[in-house]
Amino acid sequence: MSDDLDPLAPREAIDLYLNARRDDTTENTREGQLYRLRAFATWCDSEGIENLGQLDGRDLYAYRVWRREGNYSDSDELAPATLKGDMATLRAFLRFCGEVEAVPPEFFDRVPIPNVAGHDVSKTTLDPDRAMEILEYLDRYDYASRTHVIVLLLWHTGCRVGALRALDVDDLDLEGNRKRSAGPGVHFVHRPDQDTPLKNKGGSERWNSISEEVATVLRAYLRDRRIDATDDHGRHPLITTKFGRMSRGSIRTTLYRVTRPCWRGEACPHDKDIETCEWREAKSMSKCPSSRSPHDLRSGRLTYYRLEETDREVVSDRMDASDDTLEKHYDRRSERQKAEQRRNHLPDQ
Question: What whole-number distance in Å separates Cα of residue 210 and Cα of residue 259?
Fold first, then answer.
């Protein structure tokens, strides 16, 4: 950002900051700050940021998204108040860094603090039409791949990343039970003692039905393309790497990758040279303005259900969230779309 700054590594700066706060804060306060700033240091490590002087405003927004999606925590999405606390601590930390000339003096003002009063509701989403185009592309060019299965299950079940990651092969019923008139389905199970907790604990446990088409893709994946691996608990994860169960971060990166227009060979809407674009790197894909997160895909699925006028209780049960939560955080219908749907229920319209 400036040649006049003194290079300072993130973790070294955190130590300096906490030591400087010893005279005006309690030990409990510093412990809370340390936890929140360790999250920031972890993000810096993942982004290859070795000097705070490398940071710019876009990085601060990227970090906010990274934390909001539950990275460096056990949840799939950070509560708005928690996210606000994280960003407020980061702001105070960067103010200190400005005082020791590691970043420009006013850089701390660029930290995006969420508006908790509005619950920091994200306005981004994956348009349902775009989701279907991505799935059609995968069906044609990367059928039954791990990427295909990730996008397919996130879209068709509306589940969270943690729930997808928690699935084992044995949690699938791809044949159904004709005697009980039950079709294919997937079983989400809360197993916190084996590193696969669900968002609402036991309350998140449920069966989600899947179509025969989805079941067919899963059969092909299990037969031909799933990496044969077990996790640290001897279980057989559905989504695997050669090291075992796939991480939440890797699943998110998969979504960031396939939602960029250039991934399907489309022209870049941001005037970037596809061959040299910095957002091609896995660690930077989330910074592409066109990329979308699993949270955005989940909101797109809810919007699809709303547009199809699917029963609200059915959607709430399937997506493991209260109707109020779905309405507030996931429904991306425009006011015009809502008005047109209401028209269909009015006798004089």
Answer: 23
Cα separation, 225 vs 223, in Å, equals: 6
Distance of CA 197 to the CA centre of its chain: 16
- For residue 177, report the phi and psi dihedrals to the nearest 5 degrees: -135, 100
Distances (CA, A) of 35 to 54, 72, 173, 233: 22, 10, 41, 28
pTM: 0.65
- Digitized pLDDT (tens) for each residue of the chain, 349 residues in all: 455 788 999 999 999 999 998 888 788 778 888 989 999 999 999 888 999 999 998 899 889 988 888 888 766 667 777 888 889 899 999 999 999 999 998 999 999 887 765 444 455 788 888 999 999 999 999 999 999 999 999 999 989 899 999 999 999 999 876 545 578 999 999 999 999 998 888 988 999 999 999 999 999 999 999 999 999 999 999 999 999 999 988 999 999 999 999 999 888 888 888 888 988 888 888 888 889 888 888 888 887 776 666 777 777 778 776 666 556 544 544 555 544 444 454 445 4
Contacts of residue 118, defined as CB under 8 A and 6 or more positions apart, other chains included, come to: none
Distances (CA, A) of 163 to 186, 244, 325: 11, 16, 18
Pick the CATH number of 128-294 from 3.30.70, 1.25.40, 1.10.12, 1.10.443: 1.10.443
Closest to 309 in 3D by CA, of 278, 335, 284, 340:
340
Superfamily of domain 10-118: Tyrosine recombinase, N-terminal domain (1.10.150.130)
What residues does CATH 1.10.150.130 cover in the chain? 10-118
Q: Where in the chain is the domain with CATH 1.10.443?
A: 128-294
In this structure, what is the dihedral angle of CA atoms 81, 323, 162, 65, given to the nearest 10 degrees? -40
Contact between 288 and 270 (Cβ < 8 Å): yes
